[in-house]
Write the structure tokens for this entry.
Amino acid sequence: MAAFVHFGNMHDVAFKPRLLQSLIRDHLPDENGPFSEPSKLSKAVALVKKHSLLSESFLADSTPPKVIEAWKSAFSSWLNRIFSLLSTSMPDKCWAGISLLGVTCEECSSERFLESYSAWFHKLLAFLQSPADSHLVRVAACASLSDLLKRLSGYPKIRKESSSCAGKVVQPTLKMLTDENSEAIWDAAVHLLCTVATSFPFSIRSHYDGVESAIALKLLSGGCSLDMSQKLAHCLALLPKSKGDNESWSVTMQKILVLINDQLNLAFHGLEEETMRDGVARLLVSPGKHPPPPLGGYILAEEVRNKASQMTEQALMSNVSTLMSVCCLMLKNSYPVKVNVPVRLLLALVERVLMVDGSLPQMSMPFVTAKQQENICSELPALHLSSLELLTAIIKSLGSQLLPHAAYIVRIVTKYFKTCELPELRIKVYSVTKNLLITMGVGMALYLAQEVINNAFTDLSSIEHTNGDILNGSNSNDSAGATQPSSHRKRKHSNATGSLQEQDQGGGLGLEVPKNRPSTPISLRIAALETLESLITVAGALKSEAWRSKLDSLLISIATDSFKDGTVGEELSVLQLKEPAATATDLQLAALRTLLASFLSCARGRPPYLSEGLELFRRGKQQTSVTKVAEFCALALLALEVLIHPRGLPLVDYTYEDNNSLGEVHSNLQHEYFGRSNSTPYGLPQVPPDYDENLCAEWLENGNGADVSRDKDTKNNQEPSEACRDNDPEVLPVHVSSDTNIQERAQMDSEAATSADVEMKTVGDETNFTMNIPTEAHNDIVSEKILSDSTVPHNEGSHMESDHGNSVNKDLEFASQSNSLWQTTSGSNIFQEFAFKVDGDNSLADEDDFPDIVDGDPDSDSE
Amino acid sequence: MEVVLASSSLDGGIGCWDLHTGAEQLRYKSCSSPSHGLVAVGPRFIASSQLREPSATSGSVLFWSWSKPQVEVKSFPAEPIKPLASNHLGTFIAGGALSGDIYLWEVETGRLLKKWRAHIRAVTCLVFSEDDSLLVSGAEDGTVRVWSLFMIFDDFRGQQANNLYEYSFTGHSLHVTDVVIGNGGCSAIIVSASEDRTCKVWSLSRGTLLRNIVFPSVIDSIALDPAEHVFYAGSRDGKIFIAALNTESDASNNHGMHIIGSFSNQSKTVTCLAYSTSQNLLISGSEDGKVRVWDARTRRIVRLFKHAKGPVNNILVVRRENSSNHISSNVQPSSRKQGNLPPPLEKYANSIHEDSDMNTTISLGGGRSSLNPSYLSSHVISNYIKELQHQGSAAASEMETEKLKHDYQRAMQMANQWKNMYENLNKFCVNELLDGSQARTLDENHN
């Protein structure tokens, strides 16, 4: 009859009831027939979700009432089918019905849900309570109830009714958790409990102790799968929320910490120093206070203690891991009120675990068997991992309030870094370090820099040996190792480049890479690079002289290498079924990111490997097959473009009207030029001359290969003037502006005369503000400048003189104004400190006039 | 809502105005603060140090919650505190004392965490760096010092190092009047003003003087342009100078080197400056008790707030989430929770509370990382069906068939064995019977 009643398209509302009807007809099991093809059911669920067939959502005015009616009836027949399935005695059909009801709770419209949730709830609750049903049915009932409660939590208006519903669920769930012996059921029950605890925390309150002891029993008796114990941990961490006050959070935390400590005492018996154990114990129970009742009540605790004495070290330690993850979750989850975190105690526990490496002290040799030691060592990495996880959680949750404990953490991390060898653990330590750097900022970076550099060099050195000459060169004149007291490092392979001191003592004999040393896994190298990246980001320019140049050369060599063998890893990953954790592409990306960070953070003028780096980024951008790298390289080029053509864009226009008379072209050019010559703010001092030179060369695209050689020439010649520059920022504008102008002139000779004119004006302006100085001195500088610079054309001298004449005129003008006296004095003062010999009389006389300024002596600024 | 707070050295309370509408908000009572002695502690409350008479041997620090005009918490530190600073989250308060010591308190518990000898003479200004890990202090002895808070807390390294500070800038010859620190993490700049009529720009990364700017008059306050192209300097002759940092400066004007321009409010000393980034407004406080709001572009006065008769010496621009009026009327419970001010700041580093030394009070879940439970039913369906299919898969059934075949063969063998045994037995019995009957017939025949 309706065979040819077509609908519009797949978005047409009329299509939905039709599809729903046919799904009910063809895909859902029937109460009479056999339940032959369960896979059809999942197809049906997928279709219902994809087309939101149960949502009954339509535009009220534009939808024909016939369609609305059809959908309504389709929905009721869907419900009817579910109810008829629920009433059968066959467990598999019953299961199907319960699960479909859960899906309905998730998918149906709000009106429907609010109208009938209580009926559905009671139907589902009945299945939860009847112990006769099969496991399958009860798992499904738990899942569907959890869905229903989750949906209910979205309607705060019926809070009262919904919490009473949630309250009814807890008791039967607990019973299931304690009575049943199947992990599938535990899993579903714990999920349901978690839903209740997050959505309706207060309805658990009356069963608080019961829930706690049930979960604690499961956790501590062992025998759960790893997945299961994670879920139990999650549920335990949610528990304090049901009371929602500071006290219960602290008590739970303390209970867990006491338990961790007890289990550690058993597991680490004879493996650690007594002082460590006593220290933790002292922190755990403060004098004059009663310890809290044990986790899960006294009876359980007794049971656990009896059991624990028979448990293997492995079981004890995996318990500790789980309990530590409870602590992590408690720190990570949100909590309604402020809580008291026992930071010192947590850190002490972390330290206690991390300091145990499985070695036996001499005195306890007779008491520990080799088998016991083996057991402990097999589980130690997992335990270390979870305590590092805990450390991360502490750092993240405390944020800036970590400050009083920061030094302690740094000591733990640095101590552990030296002993830690397993790649997985090292990656974790790197991530802890990265977190510390990002959370705590510059101050932390000052602390950690040397440690990070040493370790990262060790881990990255396997690549480095191919071009070890770079490193040898930079190592020989490096004294960074002096601040690092650890020349006796335990790590076997640290002698490569890790400890700079050793390198120095060896007199630069070259890198010895032990033959049997396993190559560093890619993921570890990535972690090292990422940590370097965050170090550079946070404090790339602050007190970094000791390691900066070495680091720059390492980074460029790693980035270059990553382009050589980049493609091999790709093919492998395609062949492998499961994608490996880290590919060569990831390494390349990490290397490029770190390189970019090092370029951008260079506060002292031009980054040493800028041109090589730009070339790499250009090559990477062309690798369109590797999208991630190409994307990043495009971004990097964009970011570096500002470094090549620096510009300052003020928020507010500061120039005065009289400035604008110079004409737009001029001011533009001047602006640009000015900006270029101080890429770092106020940065004339920071700009070494060759920087400008190269920039100009690139800017005018004249220096094809000639500028490279010139670079080298000038580098040697300009050492002294650079030194002066560092000393005295006041004078610098003279230097740089004249210097650049000279260069500019050299380039410009072949250019059109008009642009040269514009340049001339710039010269006038630039020199203006610093020309208020005695004539002799100025001449000295200029002439010396010109002498030292062999590439400067000869006509410069005369040119400069004409400039100079100009400025002298201006000087005279100034002298007539009252203010200019100030400048003259300050200028000459500074000149006196300058390396050039100027007659002292002049400035002394000035000093008498303005004694204030004598103290404002820029040379003695830092100590 | 962005509000302007202003306080004075004479008791005029703390004035509070909405920067956008110009409407006056609550006036917080009884405050006479020294310069740099007013601070908004995170989003939580306002704190101000008090110094009634300059020669007093004791001072106090007062807290006001945003919603109440009365002083709520009074603390009495061991010695008079002039400048106050708080980190951006409002978890620590630092105070500079007349003796040159710096005090660092934890806000939540009021504990005095550290106190150290920072300067020879009174500390005049304190400011936290952008990432809260460094503290910059200026003092009457003319020095500006940069402290890494980590170093302060690390007793071990502190003893090893010669100096606690990271840098000590000794350029100024007279009192340092104001210090600001810019953005840029470790490459930030520090600008300091002093009574020696100079402002100096220091580089944090290199620890050197970058620029020395000489002004015609003493500069009492500095405000950085958010993009740090210029900074504004309020001078004692009533002018606000614009000094170049990262922009072109022209010496042909009559102000002096690096000074781009100036504008004046035709009044007395400009005592404090603040910059509102949202609208590019510069706010200045002056000795005549008025607060002027300037448009930074046109340099014209946009608004004028009248604070008190005495000189305004502190101005803050604070961004508030809610208007204080709304809090008090609508969201009563939450405002009470928020209004719970922390305990007063402790006088001495207290060694009695060893317990609290180990604990830190924090609010958890700032990152909203709490897991939402997910819908489960459809997963249960697909999991179970996968399990079923797995059991019914070809490989599994083949294995099953093989196993059944094997069992069948063994059963067949067993059956054959039994059959054989049975047959043997049967044969034996039959033979026996036959033999017996034969014998009997023989017997019968015999008989």
Observations:
- The longest strand of chain B covers residues 312-319.
- Chain B has seven helices and 28 strands.
- Chain B has one domain: 2-347.
